[in-house]
Amino acid sequence: xxxxxxxxxxxxxxxxxxxxxxxxxxxxxxxxxxxxxxxxxxxxxxxxxxxxxxxxxxxxxxxxxxxxxxxxxxxxxxxxxxxxxxxxxxxxxxxxxxxxxxxxxxxxxxxxxxxxxxxxxxxxxxxxxxxxxxxxxxxxxxxxxxxxxxxxxxxxxxxxxxxxxxxx
Length: 168
Prior knowledge:
Order of helices and strands: EHEHEEEHEHEE
Radius of gyration: 21 Å
CATH superfamily of the largest domain: Gcn5-related N-acetyltransferase (GNAT)
Mean pLDDT: 87
Strand order of the largest sheet: 3-4-5-6-8-7
Helix content: 25-40%
CATH class of the largest domain: Alpha Beta
Number of domains: 2
Strand content: 25-35%
Shape: globular
């Protein structure tokens, strides 16, 4: 596991330096670690802690289910696909990819239509995704997605677009 230790001296000058937590308890912070690989146990601890905090507010209704849709050619080779997950009655499309030789042949549209059908089947009420300006914002608009936000110059020289489509 690659761990980078951050010297605690910088903490003394930061907002984190308070000797008391919000609950009034004394807090002793010894170090901050940046874990770049092999941080599975740390990741699980952080996720479990956040879920425990969120549960009184959200209950147990949050169930994240991964979904992968693939488009295949006659040789059963993957020529495109979607990777996403269902959470809180929404489908989040994390990735959509179509092989360059199959772009412009409605493969992406067929994949998104299949994702929408699956979302409706599972009771999702909205689909959410993001894309970059050099990818496909126009494609998603044509499919009925509405832009609800953007980050200009992210990544540098481009824009990140955020889209939603209501299924109700």
